[in-house]
Specification:
single chain, 377 residues, mainly beta, Methylamine Dehydrogenase, Chain H, 6-stranded antiparallel β-sheet, 5-stranded antiparallel β-sheet, globular
């Protein structure tokens, strides 16, 4: 009888251990596979992860031990003439890390803020979205919370701020996106638009570029003029065959004097559209074979007056590609843990891992052998 009891306890313990191991794979460690098989531009390519010079910010994980962080964003403070990384936590606190000093300032506590999901920063203004359906702004230079408060009946999953700091957009979890006038006295949104039946729940947050706002609806890329009438200038049908839209971004090629709108989809396709006509220019497939890793985030970077894309995966690797030419630049091993958020400042990529590590990589190291590494497929 006692033997049966001990055997039963042993089996239950093993099952619990196995289930915990599976559940803790994300955002912790994924099994790293040194070689990945991609289908890039409908062509099969094999990529081995390359070694790259890394630097781990030692004080970052020590200070944030036991304090789960969701996202990071970098900015420069003109008053102190130093660079900072703001880390948004699940507790609603914002941790301020000085890059030059490798140290933390007292954390920022805003009133009535839940788990911070995403942040956006333009110059001195930090905008953050939280799970408690509130969108708040913080002035970095004045170190004070803006009195302007936006709330709505939806969880704020993504945020975007215009370059002139006049407009803020957010994407909710219930299939709507919103836009506010920051300078206006009315706290009600200027727009509340549905992503349509194409993206029934989460869709990409609209982005601002010059005097336009770009957003997605029912498989369309729509360009909205930010004039007094907010007229719909142009829209182009892309189609649902490429998957749900996850993120929109602006791509620049200053040498060719062309600009594009890039769209990342749930099926790991990257759609490139001309910014003027919104006609489809190229579709790049980032599909992986023989691997269970996930593409967690993407970040744009400028190099030689061109926009490149950096994608991070759940096994701690990053890949670099040219979205306009359709060239793949390589796969790099950055961490043993999943990379859940990235930010760039002063040609340096900072990666936040699932274990609250902050790893920095020089952007220039991705382009040491640019002519050799970046192959057009």
């Amino acid at each position: 009888m006692f033997i049966k009891r001990y055997v039963t306890y042993g089996i239950i313990s093993c099952l619990i251990w196995l289930s915990y191991g599976k559940a803790s794979k994300f955002p912790g460690n994924f099994e790293f596979k040194n070689e990945k098989k991609f289908i890039f531009n409908n062509k099969k390519i094999d990529q081995k992860a390359k070694e790259i010079a890394l630097c781990v910010c030692e004080n970052f994980p020590k200070y944030l031990q036991g304090k789960p962080v969701n996202c990071i964003v970098a900015t420069h403070d003109k008053i102190t003439n130093k660079d900072y990384i703001f880390a948004g936590s699940r507790s609603g606190k914002i941790y301020c890390y000085c890059i030059q000093d490798d140290s933390f300032s007292p954390y920022i506590t805003l009133k009535k803020v839940g788990s911070i999901v995403e942040m956006s920063c333009v110059k001195n203004l930090l905008v953050l979205g939280s799970c408690d359906a509130e969108l708040k702004m913080y002035d970095i230079e004045k170190k004070e919370e803006r009195s302007f408060l936006m709330s709505f009946n939806d969880r704020c999953m993504k945020v975007s701020l215009s370059d002139d700091q006049k407009f803020v957009a957010s994407a909710g979890e219930r299939g709507f996106w919103y836009m506010w006038d920051v300078m206006g006295s009315n706290k009600e949104p200027l727009f509340k638009r549905s992503f349509g039946c194409f993206n029934k729940k989460r869709g990409p947050c609209p982005i601002f570029y010059e005097k336009y706002c770009f957003y997605c609806c029912d498989g369309n890329v729509v360009r909205l003029s930010l004039n007094d009438n907010f007229s719909f200038i142009l829209k182009s049908f892309v189609g649902e065959m490429y998957g749900d839209f996850k993120r929109i971004m602006i791509l620049r090629d200053s040498i060719a004097e062309k600009e594009y709108v890039g769209i990342l989809t749930s099926l790991e396709n990257f759609i490139v559209c001309d910014i003027q006509s919104l006609k489809m220019h190229k579709v790049i497939s980032l599909e992986q074979k023989q691997t269970d890793t996930l593409l967690l985030s993407v970040q744009t970077c400028m190099r030689n007056q061109k926009t490149y894309i950096i994608g991070s995966y759940s096994d701690g690797t990053v890949c670099v590609w040219d979205p306009v030419l359709g060239s793949f630049g390589g796969l790099y091993k950055v961490s043993q843990n999943a990379i859940k958020s990235m930010t760039i400042i002063n040609d340096t990529l900072y990666c936040l891992t699932g274990q609250n590590e902050l790893v920095k990589v020089s952007i220039n190291d991705f382009f040491v052998n640019e002519q050799k590494d970046f192959i057009i497929y």
